[in-house]
Amino acid sequence: MDASSFATLHPYWPRDLLIPTYVANNRSMSEILAFLFSVSGVFLLVTWMLSGRKVSGGKLGTWRRLAVCWFAVCGFIHGVIEGWFSLYYDIIPGDQSFLSQLWKEYSKGDSRYVIADNFTVCMETVTAWFWGPFSFWAVYAFLTNKPYRCVLQLIISLGQLYGAVLYFFTEHRDGYAHSELGHPVYFWFYFVFMNALWIVIPLSLIVDSWKQLSAAQTATDNIPLSKSKTK
Q1: What pLDDT, on a 0 to 100 scale, did the predictor assign at position 222?
Q2: What is the CA radius of gyration of the chain?
Q3: Does residue 121 contact residue 129 with C-beta atoms inside 8 Å?
Q4: What is the pLDDT of residues 172-193, one digit of tens each?
Q5: Nearest 5°: phi and psi at 55?
Q6: What gap in Å lies between CA 104 and CA 29, rounded to an integer?
Q7: Sign (positive/negative) of CA torsion 96, 90, 76, 186?
């Protein structure tokens, strides 16, 4: 059997992509998505409840509590799901572990994940091992009112935004060859919507960090002036 015989024995794009070790999932799309959204929902709910308690600076507002919930979900997705990819990217096409099947399902929207594309492996490894732990650290920092909390928020959000922009831009330069362009689920939901969240939300948090840090610097700059006026 020649190599071309293997070309279409998978659901990925381009259709002539060679993935000789590929084994089809034995779990349905609904099972995989139910796991992803239910576990994310648990992280969101628990963090929402924890963030409703008083911290040393008083209660967190609704916006801030939502931001903390975002970081909790990011910690799970970056650290666990993307962490799995960073460790097992080379065996995912033929592996039937649940998280490998999750990645094979997602790869219907971006097949770079089943061919161990260099950019994807590097980007996801940095995301998993830096932004995953940092996201949980940010949750802790906000819940305990640490003075560096907005610095952490800025660092994480800049990293997420940079990664997401490169993710979209590299695929754009490839002509969106790794997905069925225009497919309502695989292209628009998996590839566009699920990744656009890491542009829109980090961008808003960067603006928030800018305002918070600018206000803190302004207050610091005004301290000598206040002291001189009291003399």
Answers
A1: 84
A2: 21
A3: no
A4: 999 999 999 999 999 999 999 9
A5: -110, 180
A6: 10
A7: negative
pTM for this one? 0.89
Are 101 and 22 a contacting pair, CB within 8 Å?
A: no
Q: Which region, left, alpha or beta, applies to residue 58 given φ > 0 means left and ψ of -120 to 50 means alpha?
A: left
Helix (H) or strand (E) holding 114: none
On whether the CB atoms of residues 111 and 12 are closer than 8 A, the answer is yes
- Can you read off the two tokens belonging to residue 166? 């490169």
Start-to-end CA distance of the chain, whole Å, equals 91
The encoded tokens of residue 111 equal: 């097949």
| Residue 53 reports pLDDT greater than 50 | yes
From 110, 19, 180, 96, select the one nearest 5 (Cα to Cα). Answer: 19
Mean pLDDT of 39-58: 87
pLDDT of res. 6:
47
Residue 52 contacts by C-beta under 8 Å, 6 or more apart in sequence?
59, 60, 65
Q: Name residue, tokens 């640490």.
A: 146
